[in-house]
Amino acid sequence: MTIPVVDYHCDVLSKMVKDKSISFADDPMLDVTYKRLQEGGVALQTFAIFLSEERGIPRFEHILDQIDVFTSRVVPVQEGVRWMKWREDAASLEHAVKAAEQHPPQSHALQPWGLLSVEGVDGFEGNLFYVKVCYDLGVRFLGITWNHANWAADGVMEKRKGGFTEKGKQLIELCNETGLLLDVSHLSEAGFWELAERSKRPFIASHSNAKMVCPHPRNLNDEQIRAIAAMDGRIGITFVPYFVKEGPGPVVPADVLPHIERMCEQGAGNMLMFGSDFDGIETWIQDLEHPGRYPAFIDLLLARYPEDLVKGWMSGNALSFLSRHLPAKPV
Q1: Beta-strand runs (E) in 58-123
Q2: CA-CA distance, 224 to 204, in Å (whole number)?
Q3: Which of 25, 134, 145, 182 could tie 155 with a disulfide, CB 3.0–4.6 Å?
Q4: Taking the chain, what is the end-to-end CA distance rounded to the nearest angstrom?
């Protein structure tokens, strides 16, 4: 059975900004390509703007470089990736996905959409005006940190394990005012709880798994999972092998299932989605190396779980969140 897919995290743009010869159409250097989005039935792919340490001190111009890559080399490909910016866009796609699920052959005909996020606010250089500029340019999600500390907050790997700075608290207010949505993957636990208290809007963890299944620092503990469920946020199960399973040996798609089950046990079954982290990883889950593998993964899920749940995990939960919480298109 073919079910349309929403994937909430990939790092294509950071690869493409380094190598101008890479084509998004079907380049073998990429995990995520236009061809593979179509093969996998991906209806919406979130493209993260990640500023690699290889480029030195993060600057605002580095963020703009990746927005340019998205607009000039991803959106124009073939029939084009449609750019999702407004709740009306999400509602339109939500309707199309439901129609495709009722008539499965149509799912392959869905034109994929793209959503822009920033992974770590370092490149804004502490300037909240730059944040507003990126909103105006079409960015809709902000991951507050990568693994370490920045001007706004501490990342999950920062040894002092702090929360938000004063400027970071102002960032929360700005995002709540403008409609920029926040992503806590990579954020310290102290920052997580501070954001849960301060934010007027629900937030997401775009690519994080269950810590009780695999105790990697980047994964969420049960209390965090329950908190996201209580606010009707979203959690993107990720395919980073060492977030999925400890120890030697290959990681296989079935190893993802205990994370799904743990989150369901914590009341987050209707808040789950997927955030693969394709193109941000150098090792892959066996037989789940790129978006073209999604149909086989969906078959694995359908063999174990009710169809309605699987449809929610693959796209319904993510799209319902977006259709409620993205900003409305200006009249």
Answers
A1: 82-83, 113-119
A2: 11
A3: 145
A4: 39
Residues 81, 184: Cα–Cα separation, whole Å: 26
What's the token pair of residue 144?
């507050």
- For 219-236, the pLDDT digits (tens) are 999 999 999 999 999 999
C-alpha of 178 from chain center = 20
Q: How far apart are CA 198 and CA 174, in angstroms?
A: 12
As a whole number of angstroms, the distance between CA 123 and CA 296 comes to: 38
Cβ atoms of residues 46 and 119 within 8 Å: no
Whether residue 183 contacts residue 141, with contact meaning beta carbons closer than 8 Å, is answered with yes
Whether 273 contacts 322, CB under 8 Å: no
**271, 305, 274: which is closest to 32 by C-alpha?**
274
> Environment class of residue 90 by beta-carbon count within 10 Å: exposed (0-12), middle (13-18) or buried (19+)?
buried
- Region for 156 from its dihedrals, namely left if φ exceeds 0, alpha if ψ lies in -120 to 50, beta otherwise: alpha
Amino acid letter, 6 = V
Distance between CA atoms of residues 180 and 246, nearest Å:
35
Sign for the pseudo-dihedral over CA of 58, 62, 64, 67:
negative
Q: pTM for the complete prediction? A: 0.96
Q: Which among 191, 184, 202 is positioned nearest to 275, based on CA atoms? A: 184
Maximum C-alpha span of the chain: 55
pLDDT band at 106 (very low <50, low <70, confident <90, very high): low
